[in-house]
TrEMBL record:
<keyword id="KW-0653">Protein transport</keyword>
<comment type="subunit">
    <text>Component of the Nup107-160 subcomplex of the nuclear pore complex (NPC). The Nup107-160 subcomplex includes NUP160, NUP133, NUP107, NUP98, NUP85, NUP43, NUP37, SEH1 and SEC13.</text>
</comment>
<dbReference type="GO" id="GO:0015031">
    <property type="term" value="P:protein transport"/>
</dbReference>
<dbReference type="InterPro" id="IPR037626">
    <property type="entry name" value="NUP37"/>
</dbReference>
<keyword id="KW-0498">Mitosis</keyword>
<keyword id="KW-0677">Repeat</keyword>
<keyword id="KW-0131">Cell cycle</keyword>
<keyword id="KW-0813">Transport</keyword>
<dbReference type="InterPro" id="IPR001680">
    <property type="entry name" value="WD40_rpt"/>
</dbReference>
<protein>
    <recommendedName>
        <fullName>Nucleoporin Nup37</fullName>
    </recommendedName>
</protein>
<dbReference type="InterPro" id="IPR036322">
    <property type="entry name" value="WD40_repeat_dom_sf"/>
</dbReference>
<dbReference type="Pfam" id="PF00400">
    <property type="entry name" value="WD40"/>
</dbReference>
<keyword id="KW-0159">Chromosome partition</keyword>
<dbReference type="GO" id="GO:0031080">
    <property type="term" value="C:nuclear pore outer ring"/>
</dbReference>
<keyword id="KW-0137">Centromere</keyword>
<keyword id="KW-0853">WD repeat</keyword>
<dbReference type="InterPro" id="IPR019775">
    <property type="entry name" value="WD40_repeat_CS"/>
</dbReference>
Amino acid sequence: MKQDATRNPAYTVDCEDFVHVVEFNPFESGDSGNLIAYGGNNYVVIGICTFQEEEADIEGIQYKTLRTFHHGVRVDGIAWSPETRLDSLPPVIKFCTSASDLKIRLFTSDLQDKNEYKVLEGHSDFINSLAFDPKEGQEIASVSDDHTCRIWNLEGRQTAHFVLHSPGMSVCWHPEENFKLMVAEKNGAIRFYDLVTHQAVLSLESEQIPLMSAHWCLKNTFKVGAVAGNDWLIWDITRSSYPQETRPVHMDRAYLFRWSAISESLFATTGYPGKVASQFQIHHLGHPQPILAGSVAVGAGLSWHRTLPLCVLGGDRKLSFWVTEV
């Protein structure tokens, strides 16, 4: 099915509750299917999905829930660990969550009898973003409204702590050099930290505020994208600390920015959630207008597939998947 210009998703999966956050596993897990995690008001669901774009004998989407984890409190963020493997015996599912009680939970499961979690405590306000170090998976970075970025080991001990000038909105590890960390603040500053020296080594400025979300481009780590105010912004860190490109995108304030995992020209943005419908757009840097626009009833979360030009949004009791061209 070729994606047409309509605003409807290509595929949907029904869920039992409101989906606050959804994340494809960005790492190779040793299985042809794609692991996906989504969080609701008191649970996290781990599922696996395969799309007709990958396997000719599948019509649309094939989805299966592998395990539901009781969470007890609203899930606000999910980050996958690169240690997750489906081809090991037993399999390893490892991820962490941030929650409305200001705690991080690190989950480990073999999808059978072993289901453990550890609580990481220290933030004193809402946690806006968290990420595993992508090479080894031995550290977790988190940023919060408490004006800090914290690095944790898997035992739950803080190994580094950076004081920010405003709420921390996004945190990303460099895909290859895991001593480099990008932190985006609500005041429009994006800083890159060296985790060996614990110093900021580079900073970017958004001329718009509030900055709500920023993302490091995995296909070209000289590129950083963000949404601030109503606009999306793209930096080339080799050229200037100010954005190279900026464009108004969402009338009701922009909310999330995510680069595609397969192209340095493809990215998606969402408008502010909580209205009747949340606007969602896919952009290509070669095109002046969005190449795809959709809307989700009270959308939340945004994540790209690891190998396809396909992204997912959560929302009211469903996951919605959009497919585009590269």
